[in-house]
Amino acid sequence: MVKTIFITNDNKKDSISIYEKEPVYVVHFERKDFNSLKQIDEANKAGIYVLVGDKQRYVGQASNKILNRLANHITNQEFWTSALFFGRNDGLIDKSQLDYLEKYYIGQFEAAGFTMTNSTVGNTSKIHKLNKIKADEIKNIFEEIIDDVANIQLFSLSDELLNEEQQSEELYVRFQCKKISHHSPRHVEINFVKAILDDRLLRQNLLAHKIDGKASYKNKLGTEQNLMPSGAIGAKEIEPGIFLWVNQSKQQTSIAIKKIADLVGIAIELNF
């Protein structure tokens, strides 16, 4: 079970959120509330942090106090409006695990189409098998918390930017003598998935990857809707009880279509 704590400001508005599921903690905060981080123990631990802007991300690590690293970024990184950081409650996360997690998330954000303000692709150090297992445990619990509990959409664009993404030339995907086209990346993906579900064999292959729960960037197909913090819907119900995650950029949609095609074992021609 995840334990949730809110640190409030003088206006009684939640400003810092802390989530705990042993052995992992996650802290989410707005840039304007940076000074309030001094109130919490987690800011004095080692871990990974992510600075969040509209189309930009920065991933960093701290082997001692995350608060000190974030203090530097108040002055040298102007793009971010919010951030989060995570690590182990007991502070026992070593350099090889930090390097591994930092490099992993830099790669994930790059693949999702975000502009990275990191000057490198992350540090590299040899990681032993046991340490990698422990790092993967931290990663999996972190992603479970942000997806299923905190509903923090790290891999999604703002509503305004998503609206900009929809204005495009005709896009299409061809497969099995079919062509699905539209000016909206979302509509192409939605109609592509609907066409797959209309095919008995392809449907079976795709639904094998559906999860019981909210559709998300990580788990594209789910049995439940996923609302954004703004109240906007993150998923489209394409059949009763089947939701497809669609809150993503044009580039992310292109990647998602290719992954879906690979999951069901079909070749496609994609014009995005």
Secondary-structure topology with pairs:
Elements: E1 3-8, E2 14-21, E3 24-30, E4 47-52, E5 56-62, H1 66-76, E6 82-88, H2 95-111, E7 115-116, H3 129-149, H4 159-165, E8 171-175, E9 178-182, H5 185-197, H6 200-207, E10 211-214, E11 221-224, E12 235-239, E13 242-245, H7 250-264, E14 269-271
Parallel strand pairs: 5-7, 10-11
Antiparallel strand pairs: 1-2, 2-3, 3-6, 4-5, 4-6, 8-9, 8-14, 11-13, 12-13
Helix pairs in contact: 2-3, 5-7
Describe the fold and architecture:
It is built from 7 helices and 14 strands. It is α+β, with helices and mostly antiparallel strands and 272 residues long. It has 2 domains: 3-149, no CATH class; 159-271, no CATH class. The strands form 3 sheets. It has a 7-stranded mixed β-sheet, with helices on both faces. The chain has a 4-stranded mixed β-sheet with strand order 10-11-13-12, with helices on one face. Strands 9-8-14 form a 3-stranded antiparallel β-sheet, with helices on one face. β4 and β5 (56-62) form a beta hairpin. The radius of gyration is 20 Å and the shape is elongated.
